[in-house]
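To the wet lab folks,

You asked to see what we're planning to order before we commit. Fair enough. Below is the target structure as tokens, and below that is the sequence we designed to fit it. If anything looks off to you, flag it before the synthesis order goes out.
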């Protein structure tokens, strides 16, 4: 059930960024010679008891992360939730 929710979230994140250049860094809405890879190509989503990449903040939380927020300077970190909380 958690894996299904994660797959849905990944699809949601890539509705507007459906194709990439092979690096997962540059994305495009349209498939082309420069962006030949679909978001799901080579991707396997699974559930783990351990967060293997804790600072990707896949589900949010960057603002509250003591590492990514600069050691407690939470107000200095901008993410998509900052507008809601100010
Ligand atoms: Zn972090």
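Sequence we intend to order:
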């Amino acid at each position: 059930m958690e894996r299904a929710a994660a797959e849905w979230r990944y699809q949601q994140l890539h509705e507007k960024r459906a194709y990439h250049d092979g690096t997962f860094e540059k994305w495009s809405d349209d498939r082309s010679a420069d962006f030949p890879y679909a978001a799901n190509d080579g991707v396997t989503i699974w559930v783990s008891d351990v967060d293997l990449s804790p600072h990707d903040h896949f589900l949010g939380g960057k603002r509250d992360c003591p590492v990514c927020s600069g050691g407690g300077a939470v107000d200095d970190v901008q993410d998509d939730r900052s507008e809601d909380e100010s």
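Structural context that might help your review: Residues 1-47 form one domain. Helices lie at 2-13, 82-85.

Thanks,
Computational group
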